[in-house]
Amino acid sequence: MAAIDRRSPIPLYYQLKLHLQQQMESGQLRPGDRLPTEAELCELYNVSRAPVRQALTDLVREGAIYRRAGLGTFVAPHNGIGLERRTVIRVLAHYDVRWMATLEEAVSSWNERHPEHEVRLDLQMCAREEFHNVLRRAVIQGESPDMVPLDYVWVAHYASDGYLKPLQELDPAWAATLANDLEPLVNYNNTYEDRLYGVPVQADITGLWYRKDWFEQEGFGAPHTWAEWLKVLEHFSTEACRARFRHQYALTMPVSTATGEATVNLLIAFLWMCGGDILDPDGGLTLNTPAVHQALQFLQSITVERRAYLPKEIDRASWWDLVRFFASGDVPMAIGGSYEWPRIRDEADWAEEEDATSNLGFCLLPRPLPETPPVGSLGGSSWVVLRQSSHQDLACELLKLLAEPEIATAFCEENLQISARASINRHIVGPEHSWLSQIVPMLAHARPRPRIAGYLRLSHLLQMMFERTLWQGAEVESIVRQTDQMLRYVLAG
């Protein structure tokens, strides 16, 4: 049905959830009405059970529907005050809205505890590549949202520009308690000038997704070195292997500006593993080095010399398309992040953690030599309060709720995500969570991307550098030198 668009960057489960919410708001589904079963919804909307189950679970938590054992799922009665009398919290988010679940559950919890002062969310969504322009325009026009989710890397950028409200100014004691429980690098990335701005939902690390079941059948393990990786790429590109598993290509990876910041996030670790970097410890530019040249030349050996290994239009692929190739079985490998399991689950119909453990593999990126220390780029999503918010105190109360261990832990367990908090990571590592027990320890090998006020401009220039070298095949040393010169000019200004 038209309610689900597989080409959309909005997760399938969230599209279904919005559709059901709209049916309830319009009266197509009335209080007391029985919803179709999970199997019926799967058939009706041509989706797997994973997104259906997630959509229904979220609606149950928010009190919109309820389950009766043996009878089915029903639309809940209308409770509380009218929508027009509720305090509206305005939220701007890009289409990758999976992190909305924590905020929506916090709102539901707030409304249960405070029926005399109910809250509703006014959500505006935009494309990821439009997010920064939309946010800045709203602030300039005096129409700032109350809250937004930000990738860690943007927190310092917006804090330095005065967009964000420090949590210490809202509730100093709670902010201090939260900061003490955050993983050290996560705390570093959500702090600017010794003040905490972000409330992280999860943490993630970049690496290589691979079809573990296919690899085992072919006698391969996870590739740990460049030489091993090239051997595996060659094997899965052979006609016989492609016929066996019915895949078309060997690998997906970002190669252009079409994937936006994901290009930098997913590829910067190759510079690090060669000993290169963007900035030195004092914040000085250190891009134009032999180590950076070595990393880009190796990547060129895949994207230029072995271009047939990659999908033909990979340079036009958006960030959500990279993992879709992998989840649909078109490739056995994809450079990606640990955060992508929910989208893989939705696309591949692997609903359980056991499916991930048996069918999927995720390892840190292959490195030049066995003795090279493994490394991955740190990422994650945080909720922040805008300084122009009209409801700063209420927004802070919602952040406290979504940070409560019950909500934060449930999100990580259900979506198989690394937690941003040390206490929760200790809880979710164990025999009952075999997949999380594999990926949580990888956080020890994470490094943050450059944490500077002008990261928006720096990121764009780095994306162009990767595109010109990896896809256009430009001479590496020349492009790196040009990028270095432009960065010096931009950062000086």
Can you walk me through this structure?
The chain is α+β, with helices and mostly antiparallel strands and 493 residues long. It starts with 11 loop residues before the first helix and ends with a helix. The strands form 5 sheets. Strands 9, 10, 11, 12 and 14 form a 5-stranded mixed beta sheet that branches. Strands 5-13-8 form a 3-stranded antiparallel beta sheet. A two-stranded antiparallel sheet has the order 1-2. The radius of gyration is 23 Å and the shape is globular. It contains 22 helices and 14 strands. The chain folds into 3 domains: 64 residues, Arc Repressor Mutant, subunit A (Orthogonal Bundle); 187 residues, D-Maltodextrin-Binding Protein, domain 2 (3-Layer(aba) Sandwich), CATH 3.40.190; 214 residues, D-Maltodextrin-Binding Protein, domain 2 (3-Layer(aba) Sandwich), CATH 3.40.190.10. Helix 12 crosses helix 13 and helix 12 packs across helix 21. The mean pLDDT is 92. 46% of the residues lie in helices and 13% in strands.
